[in-house]
Amino acid sequence: MKFGVIVFPGSNCDHDAFYATSGNLNQESVYLWHKDTVIPDDIDCVIVPGGFSYGDYLRCGAIARFSPIMNEVVKFAENGKPVIGICNGFQILIEAGLLPGALMRNASLHFLCKDIYLRTENNSTLFTSELKKDEVIRIPIAHGEGNYFADPDTIKMLEENNRIVFRYSTPEGEIKDEVNPNGSINNIAGIINEKGNVLGMMPHPERYSDEILGCNDGIKVFESILKHINKG
Amino acid sequence: MKTDKELYSEIAVDVNVAKECGLTEKEYEMICDILGRVPTYTEIGIYGVMWSEHCSYKNSIKQLKTLPRSGGRLLVDAGEENAGLIDIGHGYAICFKIESHNHPSAIEPFQGAATGVGGILRDIFSMGARPIAALNSLRFGELTTPRIKYLLRGVVEGISHYGNCFGVPTVGGEIYFEDCYHDNPLVNAMAVGIVKTDKTASAGATGPGNPVFIVGSSTGKDGIHGASLLASREFDELTEDMRPTVQVGDPFSEKLLLEATLELIDAGVVVGVQDMGAAGICCSTSEMSAKGKVGMKIDLDLVPLREQNMSAYEIMLSESQERMLFIIEKGKEAEAIRICNKWDVPITQIGEITDSGVLEIYRFGNLVVNMDAEPLVLGGGAPQYDRETKEPEYLKLTRNFDFTQLNINHTLSDAFWKILKSPSLASKKWIFEQYDSQVRTNTVDITGDAAIMRLKELPGMGIAVKTDCNSKFVYLNPYVGGLIAVAEAARNVVCVGAEPVGITNCLNFGNPYDPEVYWTFKEAVKGMGDACRALNTPVTGGNVSFHNESRNRAIFPTPTIGMLGLIDDLNKTSKSGFQNENDVICLVGNNREELGGSEYLKVMHDLVTGDAPMLDIEEEKRLYKVILDAIGNKIINSAHDISDGGLALCLAEKAIKSNGNLGAEIFIGENTIGKLFGESQSRVVVSLSDDNFAKLESLANANNIELRKIGQVTKERFSIEGCISTTVNELKLAYEGAIPEIMG
Fold first, then answer.
1. CA dist., res. A120 & res. A131, Å (int)
2. Cα–Cα distance measured from residue B76 to residue B123, given in angstroms and rounded to the nearest whole number
3. pLDDT digits over A61-110, tens only?
4. Angular region, B711: left φ>0, alpha ψ -120 to 50, beta rest
5. pLDDT for position B243
6. Domain final position from B376, B410, B437
7. For testing the chain B interface, which of A19, A113, A204 should be mutated: the one with the most B CBs within 10 Å?
8. Domains of chain A, start order
C-alpha cells in the first residue's frame, strides 16, 4: 500500500511517519507538499504528522488548516479513505473540522514528552484492528497543547458512539487522574470521526514502531491500516 | 588596498569611540596603523566586534593551540569550520559543537537560552549536516531564591521552545546548582548532526564574481553589540540595561532555513556558507573573505530590514537570528532562488566576491567600509595575547584543608538522604520531560550515563553523546580538574558501550585579565590537553566564554566537555540500572576514599575544599578496556560510573533506574564516609550474573584493574549494611520528588 505524509512548513515528525511506514512497515511512502492541490489517486492513507506547523505561534493547527492540501485532505476523507492525524496532525484535523472538540494547553502549562500508556477502547476501527479490546500499549507523547476538551453533549455523543479510541491509562489499564498527562476530559487521547475513517491522536505511534528504540507497540496502528487496505 | 574612493563616516571616530566599541587604546592604535588612517564609524564597529574576546579568542587562542586539534578521525582541524567533523566511516561524518550563551541567558533567560540553541544548530547545518541531537550543560546558583527559580524556568522553557519546535531531540546534558553561578548562570548548548562526507559545506568564500546572498530572516536592531559588549565583559549594575542586546529567536524560521540550507547544499549550488550568529554580517563577510583569501563588495541597501533607515553600523552589527550568508556559484542563482522560494525562505543578493581581499561596503550610496578582511580575523591580524598568571591564593587554604577538623554530627543515613535530595544530584525529570527527547526517532536510550542514538543512515550503528564538567574539582585543582572533565565524559560514553572518539569544549571562566583566573584557565587547558592526547579524543572545536563573573566574584572555572562516542553494534550496549534479580554487584576500580570537592562536603558541611581526587590517566584507559570488553562480550548487564555522591549514590541510582523495582544488598565491610561518599575517579559499578564473574575477573586482572564483589541485586529493598535500609520506592520518591517540590 501507499502512505502519503503531508509536509507543512514546520512539520517535524514527517520524516518519522515516513520512516515508520516505509522503513518499519515496509510499505511505500511519499511526501505530500502543503501547497499541492491534488492528492494522487494511488495514495491509500494520508498521515497528517506532528510538529509545529507554521510555528504554531497562533492556536495550534489554525494556519495549517488553510493550506491548499487541506482542501484535498477533506475531500479524501469525505471519500471514506483513511486519514490519521498525530499530535499536531490531530490539532490540524480539529481545526479543519474533520474531528470535534479542541486541544487546549496542558493542565501543567508545560510541554511534556514522556512514555504513557494507552488503553484501546475501540478495536473495531480500521486503525486498531490489530489491537485487542482493552489492550494497553506504551507510546510516547510530546506536546504542549494536548488537553482534549469538548462540550458535554459532544463528549456524551463520543462516549455513546464508541468514538473514543484511546484513553490514557495505567500500565494495568486503569483510567485514573494520576495518569492523565495533560488534563484531557475522560483521559481522552484519541478519537475517530463518525464514519470511522479519520483518527486523531496526541500520542506518537510512529515513535515506537521500531524494536531498536525499546518499544514497537505503535506499529500496530500502521499494521491495522495496512490490513484494512489489503482487504480492499 | 589604499583607495582614492571617498569614505563616509556617520560619526567622527576617535579613541573614545573605539573604547565604546569595546577596544583598548592600544588596539585602536593598531587599527589606525593597519589602515594607515582613522577608521570610519562602521569600520571601528566592525573591528570592535571582530577583535572582541567572543570573536577573536584574543586571550585564549595561544592556549587553545596547545590542545590536540587534528588527527585521528578529524576531517577538519579545530576552528577551521563552523563545527567539528568526525569521520565515522562508510561515507558519513558526525558534526558537533558546543557553545555558550551565558550572558544573554542571565538577563533574559528564555530568549537567551532559546537563541543559544538556535545558534548552535545553525553551526551544524551550515556544515551540511542534519541535526540529530541536542544537549545542554547548565549551571545556576543554589535553587533557593525566587531569582534562581525564575532563571531555571526561563532557561528550560527557552530550550524547550526552540528545540521542540525546530524538531531536534534534546537528549542529555547536566545541571548543577552552585552559589558561584548566582549572578552568572551558564547555558552551554551542544548540537550533533550527521552528514555524508562528500556533501559537507565550507565556510570559505571563493571565486571572484560569485554572488553573495543573505538567506533567512530580515535584519533588525536586535542583538547589536551582543558579542562585543554583553559577552565580553563582566556583570555590573549596568548589565540589566543591556537587555536589548539579547536576540529574539524564531525556531519556525530556523526549521525552514534548515531545510532550505540542506537542499541548497545538496543541489550543488553552494560555494560557501556561514551562519550569522555573533556579530552578524560583520563576522560572516570578514571570516568568509579571509578564509577564501578574497574580498567582497556588499551593498547594505539590498539587505532586507525590519525597520527603515538603519545605519550601516547597525546593519553590520545586528545579531538578528535565523540568517545565513551564502556564496552561490555564478550561473546557479536561479536554482538557489527556486529552492528558497519552495521553503518560503527569503533570499536576497547583497553583493559579490572580488579578488581584492578588501571588504567594500556601501550604504545609501556611500562607501562606508573599505578595508582588508584578513586583519579582522582570528588567525589573521586579530591580536593574540599572553596574559599574566598567578597561582590563586585560595588554593593554599583548600589544598591544606585538614579533614580531621570536620565536625561530624550526622549519621551516614542522614548524609545519604540529604545528598540524594540535593538539587544537583536529584532527578532532573521535571526539566527533561519538557524537552522533546524522541523526535526524529533515533533516540535509543537516554537513561544511561550517556545518550545513545541510532544512525538510520548506517543500520546497526550508533553514537553516544554526553556533556560533563565537575567544576568543583577544576576550582580545587585546575590541572587535575581539566583531566577529570575529559576522563569523566569519556567514562560516561564507555559505560554505555561506546568508544570515545572526540570532544568539543566550552571553556567558561572569569575575567582573563585577572592573573589568578588566567592561571586556572591555563592549567585547566593543559589538563584537558593531556587527557585528550592520552585518550586519543582530539578537540574538534568549541568556544571560550570569559568574563563570567559579577561583583568581583568569578564562577568556578567550568570547562564543559561534550564527548562523542561511537557504537559499532547497537546490540552491544549497556544500561546503567540493575537488570536482573540475584545478579552480583561489583566495584570495578580503586577504593581511594578521597573526599576533596565531594558533594558530601558541600551538602553536609557547606564546604568546597580539599584537593580534587587524583587521576591516573593510564589507569583510566585500562578501566575503559575492561568495561568495553565486558559490554562487548555481554559479560555484564549494567554499568554506571561513580561520580557525584560517590559509591552510595551510584548504587542508589542503579536501583532507581533498574529494570522493574530492583534494589541491592551491599556489604563493603566497615562503612566510612570516604568509602561511601568519596568521589575517587576511574571507578564503575557493574552488575552481572555470578556465572560471568570469572570472565570479568580475568579481564580485570589482565588489565591490572581492581575488582571486588560488593553485593547482590535484590527485589524492592535497598540496603547498605550498617548505613541504610530502605525500599526502592522510597529512593524514587526522594530522588524524583526533590526538584518538583522546590519548583512547586
1. 7
2. 14
3. 999 999 999 999 999 999 999 999 999 999 999 999 999 999 999 999 99
4. left
5. 64
6. B376
7. A113
8. 2-231 (3.40.50.880)
Q: Which three cell numbers stand for residue B328?
A: 552561490
Taking the Cβ of residue B661 and every Cβ of chain A, the question of whether any pair is shorter than 8 Å is answered with no
Strand B638-641, strand B683-688: pairing: antiparallel
Rounded to 5 degrees, φ, ψ at B287 are: -70, -40
Same structural domain, B663 and B721: yes
Q: Of A61, A29, A34, A24, which is closest to residue A45 (Cα–Cα)?
A: A29
Cβ contact (<8 Å) for B252 and A210? no
CA R_g for chain B: 26
Instruction: Find, in chain B, the residue whose alpha carbon is nearest to that of A57.
Output: B252
Q: In what order do the strands lie in the sheet with B451-454?
A: B443-445, B451-454, B462-468, B558-567, B499-508, B539-545
Let me know: does B245 contact B267? Beta carbons within 8 Å. Answer: no
In a domain, B434, yes or no: no
Please name the residue of chain A whose CA is at the shortest distance from the CA of residue B162: A55
Contact criterion met (CB below 8 Å) for A211 and A130: no
Cα distance between residue B265 and residue B607, in whole Å: 53
Residues B371 and B393 in one domain: no
CA distance B67 to B529: 5
List A72, A121, A130, A206, catalytic entry? A206
A192-204 residues labelled b (16+ CB within 10 A) or e (exposed): bbeebbbbbbbbb
Q: Are B407 and B324 within one domain?
A: no
**Which chain A residues are Cβ-neighbours of B570 within 8 angstroms?**
212
Q: Are residues B371 and B412 in the same domain?
A: no
Measure the CA–CA gap between B30 and B271, rounded to whole angstroms.
33
Q: Is residue B553 part of a domain?
A: no
Contact B336, B347 (CB under 8 A): yes
Is A9 close to B443, i.e. CB distance below 8 A?
Answer: no
Cell numbers at residue A180, please? 492523565
Q: Please check whether residues B251 and B394 belong to one and the same domain.
A: no
C-beta atoms of A19 and B456 within 8 A:
yes
Q: Which domain holds residue B83?
A: 66-376
Is the pLDDT score of B630 beyond 80? yes
* CATH number of the domain bearing residue B151: 3.90.650.10
Rounded distance, CA B717 to CA B670, Å? 21
Identity of residue B438: Q
Residues B87 and B125 in one domain: yes
Cell numbers given for A45: 492513507
Residues B337 and B401 in one domain: no
Task: Please check whether residues B255 and B190 belong to one and the same domain.
Answer: yes
The answer to whether the pTM exceeds 0.90 is yes
User: Does A214 contact B444 at a Cβ distance shorter than 8 Å?
Assistant: yes
Distance from CA of A160 to the nearest CA of B (A): 34
- CA-nearest of A114, A165, A121 to A141 is A114
pLDDT in tens, B232-254: 666 666 666 666 667 889 999 99
User: Which pLDDT tens digit goes with each residue over B498-553?
Assistant: 999 999 999 999 999 999 999 999 999 999 999 999 999 999 999 999 999 987 68
Enter the C-alpha cell of residue A172.
494495568
Residue B369 is placed in which grid cell?
Answer: 567600509
Cα separation of the two ends of chain B: 63
Does B457 reside within a domain? no
State how far the alpha carbon of A102 is from the alpha carbons of A91, A149, A169, B474, in Å.
8, 5, 21, 52
**Is there a domain that residue B593 lies in?**
yes
- What ipTM did this prediction achieve? 0.97
B699, B629 Cβ separation under 8 angstroms = yes
Is A206 annotated as catalytic? yes
Residue in B with minimal Cα distance to A15: B440
What's the CA gap between B159 and B116, in Å, rounded?
8
The number of domains in chain B is 2
